[in-house]
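Encode chain A's predicted structure.
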Amino acid sequence: MTRVYNKWTSEQEAFLRDNFEQYMDKELAEMLGVTARSIHGKACRLRLLRSKAALSARSSGEHSHNWKGGVRVNNIKEYNRLMSYRYRRGPKAEIYKKRHKVNALVQYALRKGILKKGVCAVCGATEVVGHHEDYDKPLDVIWVCVKCHAELDKRKRARDKAKAKAAI
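Encoded structure for chain A:
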């Protein structure tokens, strides 16, 4: 199969030269009806470069990969407080607190030699994490690999959901 390449017209090249600083490749591609890769390649061949000011303007604010919805750096504590609400005061706060305490206790028991990691109880893998069926029994740990742990948690959530439906 042969690829069909459309030649760049002089109008398209002129448009690219005039607007290269103002728009990013993706936006220019939409305007000209070509791919962003095509824009990039043509810009390299024409030796077009964006200034640092243009690049920083296009990668700041909501264009940045770190955009957090308008939270200012001086207000990051407030953002973190709001985001952690569900863990500290949300509907499942008590479960999260209990889980944190149990996991800390298991880590302590591992350090002191009270508990020893084994192999995955499901598949036999050696890289394992602890799984608790009941957080009221903190040292009753089932050692499973990450993949099997996700499956066990999925089943546990399904059981809990079924119990909640049955209680209604």
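The chain is about 55% helix and 5% strand.
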